[in-house]
Specification:
It is built from ten helices and 15 strands. By secondary structure, the chain is α/β, with parallel strands linked by helices. The chain is globular and about 65 Å long.
Length: 309
């Protein structure tokens, strides 16, 4: 089983875990870029199994991540700190995807262009890059317990910003009852419900922690099961945005990732030419996709460095 000559894609998390860079990552990426194809465009991929049939050299790369807590510039710095050369244009994150959608696609009344953010600075930075006004997020005013006065002012609407037309939920390390109360109030008043991504878990330090989906889940319950429009993998809104920016042939692209329910499903539903599962993240063995009906990678490797042979 082989992956066609690609302009691949891959997921951050295949490269490192926490601050630990997986062995062979830098060398593998250098190998894949070694024909000097311009770094401004990408989508790279590979496969294993019958690796003698693969053409792995000269691939263009896009680092696709669902992690909304960091901006593209943050990830560029993270990559470079790990010894991986990268440009901002080579990073495509769920926060950026959401910002593009809000600024260029989502029809909002002129008086309701503000976004209420449940999330970290990565979301705020990408909203700023598209000149989208926002409140909430990392603002210290929201990082406190709710008070009796808050109940009264939120219920009456006096505490609410009438210009808010969107609630955007991402991974929020400082989520609290007050933020949820504000978000719910805006949704009840007709704000659009969006999410950078709905990953149920976040892999870190060799374990799993609550993901961005755990932030939007309470609001889903409050809204009677209404799901947000999500922009991270496996949402095809993100695939369409990547295709719109990089103008690539989907049949000549391959998704490389460590999660079946996001990365591999993203590639399969996007009609990419290949999907490669790397077993250094959430997915640990073939037994995982045997239990995941319909989400089976075209090929797999133990770790990214195995592509070097």
């Amino acid at each position: 089983m082989s992956v066609p000559k690609a302009e691949g894609t891959r997921r951050i998390g295949v490269l490192w875990s926490g601050d630990h860079l997986f062995e062979g990552t830098v060398e593998t990426l250098e190998m894949l870029r070694s024909k000097g194809i311009p770094s401004s465009i990408t989508l790279m991929l590979f496969s294993l199994v019958h690796r003698d049939s693969l053409d792995l050299v000269g691939k263009q790369i896009v680092f696709v991540t669902n992690n909304s807590t960091k901006s593209r510039a943050d990830y560029k710095r993270k990559l470079e700190s790990m010894g991986i050369p990268a440009s901002v244009d080579e990073v495509f994150g769920s926060s950026y995807s959401a910002a593009i959608y809000i600024s260029r696609i989502l029809p909002l009344p002129p008086s309701q262009k503000t976004v209420f953010v449940l999330g970290e600075s990565g979301i705020e930075t990408e909203l700023d890059s598209e000149s989208i006004p926002h409140i909430g997020g990392t603002d210290p005013l929201y990082n406190r317990p709710i008070s009796p006065a808050d109940y009264t002012s939120i219920a009456s609407g006096s505490a609410l910003d009438p210009s808010v037309g969107v609630v955007l939920a991402g991974l929020d390390f400082h989520l609290n009852y007050l933020k949820l109360a504000y978000a719910f109030a805006y949704l009840q008043r007709g704000a659009k419900f969006l999410a950078t991504n709905t990953d149920t878990t976040l892999p870190s330090a060799g374990s799993l922690f609550p993901g961005a989906g755990a932030v939007s889940a309470p609001l889903v319950t409050m809204m009677g099961g209404k799901m947000p429009m999500a922009f991270g993998k496996p949402s095809q809104a993100m695939m369409d945005a990547i295709e719109g920016k990089f103008k690539f042939d989907r049949k000549k692209a391959c998704m490389v990732g460590d999660r079946l329910d996001t990365d591999i499903k993203f590639g399969i539903e996007g009609g990419l030419g290949g999907t490669l599962c790397v077993l250094t993240g959430v997915t640990k063995s073939e037994r995982d996709w045997e239990a995941e009906a319909g989400v089976v990678p075209m090929a797999w490797v133990r770790e990214l460095g195995d592509l070097r042979g």
